[in-house]
Design brief:
single chain; alpha/beta; Hypothetical Protein Ychn, Chain: A; five-stranded parallel beta sheet; 5 strands; globular; TAT_signal_bac_arc
Length: 160
């Protein structure tokens, strides 16, 4: 288990490093990726509905790979609902107590424009307020409805 965990970390760190290098190069060459060229054509939404740290790291790594592949020219949403919502809950109320490493990956991806949507229906069920969410979280009415709406807008849907 520890070896698998370390392997996932190395993969994720490698993905983030690649994204950082490619992103810096793209920004230095073109300015803002969405600036004069308009919105990106590469759109993806990831379903995150489990609280397992290995599962979460796989999704975060996959988002980093997509960013790297498209030279940061991708609109990425990670839709958190059900047990996956715990990723977006601040430490005092968070029953999962995720490692600092996972939260650093969320912050890093957010800096590259990845959006983390938080299902308000799940929030109601587990008695979480907007004030209990991390700053990167964007509340949406429903994770399921959000997945439908984003797919209608042309987002590719990735479920694990």
């Amino acid at each position: 288990m520890t070896q698998s965990k370390n392997h996932s970390r190395r993969q994720f760190i490698g993905g983030i490093a690649a994204v950082a290098g490619v992103g810096a190069l793209a920004l230095s060459n073109q300015g803002n990726a969405q600036g004069m060229m308009g919105p990106t054509k590469n759109k993806v939404v990831f379903q995150l509905n489990k609280s397992d740290p290995a599962y979460i790291l796989d999704i975060l790594h996959s988002a980093a790979v997509v960013l790297g592949h498209f030279n940061s020219d991708a609109d990425i949403v990670i839709d958190c609902f059900g047990p996956g919502l715990w990723l977006l809950v601040k430490a005092p109320k968070n029953h999962q107590h995720y490692e600092k490493f996972i939260m650093e990956q969320v912050e890093s991806l957010h800096m590259y424009g990845v959006v983390f949507n938080a299902c308000e229906q799940t929030m109601k069920t587990i008695h979480i307020d907007k004030a209990d969410l991390i700053p990167q979280a964007v509340p949406v009415f429903s994770g399921a409805v959000d997945l439908i709406t984003l797919q209608q807008k042309g987002y590719a849907y990735i479920a694990w």
